[in-house]
Amino acid sequence: MSRPTPRAVVVDDSHFMRTMLSDMLEDGGVTVVDTAADGAEAVNAVLEHEPDVVTMDLQMPEVDGLEAVERIMAERPTPILMLSAHTADGADVTFEALEKGAVDFFTKPGGEVSTRMSSKEDQLVRKVKAVAGADVGGGPSTADRSRSAEATTDGDHRDGGTVLIASSTGGPTVVERVVAGLPRDADFRVIVVQHMPDAFTGRFADRLDAASEYDVREAEDGDRIGGGEALVAPGGKHLVVAGAGGGRLRIKLTEDPAEHGVRPAADVTMRSAAETVDDPLVGVVLTGMGADGAAGVQAIADAGGHVIAQDEASSAVFGMPKRAIERGCVDDVLAGDDVPEGILDAITLEVNA
After folding, report:
1. Which fold has domain 7-132?
2. What confidence tens digit (pLDDT) does each residue in 59-83 have?
3. Catalytic choice (84, 148, 168, 212)
4. 238 labelled catalytic
5. Do domains 7-132 and 142-352 have the same CATH topology?
6. Coil/strand/helix, residue 308
7. Which position among 292, 314, 315, 337 bears the catalytic label?
8. In the Cβ-directed half-sphere of 180, how many Cα atoms lie within 13 Å?
């Protein structure tokens, strides 16, 4: 049985861009039911047509993309894909949009827009279709998130261990809550592989650093990471765990071919960690489309580590966790906000085994 064709509203203040995006989506099997030139028109179009997905420009006159996202999520929650500039400033505003409820983002190319955008047509269509299937039925409140974080910090957790987190579509806000929920005195070494362009991973690391008790930075080639530290794999490069000793991990970055069409790929990082790390090891697969992470957590499980997958109910896109679960190597299937406690329990079990 084939899936119904997703219905989209395309929002951009450029008539040229609205036309090009609409043509690309229509050619890829997405029905564009309306277009809008600013945020106010976007809200009205969503209320009128009740689409499956919205592609939302950020910079628009009058009502911008951020305000439009906020209004749509308040009046008729709908999966939204932000179209962002490939810049540091664009990254900051994009993360604000994700906080307000947008599911994911797609970077607009610079230069000859029509030529470069056309080269990304297949990627855009895949992402729009994935976001169209996202569950935006309301995430946890700020109070709920605070209570979850507080619950994980009870007691003394000086167990150490390495935690590898894989995430893609819908992942940044979940990753932020997971890392923020890990107590500093647990002394974990944390590595995050979030599918994200290179202009965004540094800003993402800064956000995780501000939100958590851990010292978080974007990984550089030759980095060493110890307890209480976290690294984010940089966009465009694979992160390899190249050595371990003295409570620290040594990191190597490579530009080897993409896996699953992505670089960084979590499978690369997880396989290398499974081969290298002797201490307690936990692999976590969060929301995202595709199969990245499934082979990686299989390697972690085969090496005696513990595997956690996010459950379907709390995943915006259940592709990556589902593929991991289908491997038969997942120990716990948890809601996103329960993952920090699951990590603590897993490390404690391994330490006491």
Report:
1. Rossmann fold (3.40.50)
2. 888 889 999 999 999 999 999 999 9
3. 168
4. no
5. yes
6. strand
7. 292
8. 20
DSSP string, 245-283: ETTEEEEEEE-PPPBTTBSS-HHHHHHHHHHH--S-EEE
Extents of the domains making up the chain: 7-132, 142-352
Q: Which CATH superfamily hosts domain 142-352? A: Methylesterase CheB, C-terminal domain (3.40.50.180)
Catalytic residue among 34, 52, 57, 195: 195
Burial class (CB in 10 A: 0-12, 13-18, 19+), 75: exposed
pLDDT, tens only, 293-346: 999 999 999 999 999 999 999 999 999 999 999 999 999 999 999 999 999 999
Give me the residue label for tokens 């330490």.
Answer: 351
* 3-state SS assignment for residue 158: coil
- What letter represents residue 206's amino acid? D
User: CA 306 to CA 319: how far, in whole Å?
Assistant: 20
Question: Quick check: is 168 catalytic?
Answer: yes
User: Measured between alpha carbons, how far is 229 from 202 in angstroms, rounded to an integer?
Assistant: 15
Q: The pTM is what?
A: 0.88
